[in-house]
C-alpha cells in the first residue's frame, strides 16, 4: 500500500484533517489499482449472455469487476450497401443494448459486482488487445460461437483467434457451462521443457485464488521408463510445492485422453497452453477429436508463457 505522511504533500505541512482525507484517497486509489477486472466480450447472443453470467459469478467469487466489451466491424463495402439505418442510429442502438445489459446485471447481482461497458469499432483481436493493455485484466471471458460445441470452442473465429494470439488469459465458455465453485483445475501439459512453456506464476495465482487443486494431465504411449518425463515432472512438482497438485499420467491419444479424463473427473476448468502446438493443433484439426469435444461442457482457459519478467493477467 502507498502511504501518505503529513510532509509528503508538495513538501508542505498539512493539518491533521487534510492529511486524513488524503490518506483515505490514497487507500481508495490503492484498492482500485489492485481490483481484479474480468473483460467479457459480448455480441448479445445467447452464448454470450451465458458467458456473461459465468463471468459475473466468477467476479463475485474472486471480488472482481466486470467490463463488458462489444466490438463491431463494418463491411468493407458498407458505403455501397443499401442499409435502412444510419451509422449514428446503429451506434446508438448498440449503446442502448449495452446499457440495458448493464442495468439488468446490476439488478440481478444486487450491486455486488461493479459493471462497466465499452463499445468499439474495428478488428476484434486488435481492439480487444487495446482494451486489455489499458485495463490489465485478470482474464478475458467469452462464449463460443457456432451451432455445435466443437464449432463454439475451436472453430469460432473470434474465440480461436483470441485464444491463440491474445497474451492475456482467455476463458471460453460453452453454452451448457455454468459457473460453480472452482475446486479442480486441469492442466493439459506435455512436460516438454516445462520451464520454457508453463506459465507457473499465473497458474499458481489462479489455483491460490480459488483454493483449488491443480491436476497436471500428461499422456504418453511409452511402455518403458522415460527419464526425461520423470525429470520434468519432478521439476514442475517442486515449483508447485506451495499449492495442492496431482500428476496424472494417462495412456492413449493425447487430445481425446486428456479431454475424457477432464470430463470424467469433473474438472471445473481446463488450462491449455497454445504454444504447445502438438496439443493445440491436433485439437483443432483432428476430426475424431472434434467429435469428442462435441460432448465436452468444460470451460477452457488459454494461458501463454511470457517468461519470468513479463506477466499478463492473473497475478497478485
TrEMBL record:
InterPro entries assigned: Rossmann-like_a/b/a_fold, UspA
Ranges of residues in domain UspA: 35-174, 238-303
Listed name of the protein: Universal stress protein
Origin organism lineage: Bacteria, Pseudomonadati, Bacteroidota, Chitinophagia, Chitinophagales
PANTHER family: STRESS RESPONSE PROTEIN NHAX, UNIVERSAL STRESS PROTEIN UP12
Family (UniProt): Belongs to the universal stress protein A family.
Entries under SUPFAM superfamilies matching the protein: Adenine nucleotide alpha hydrolases-like
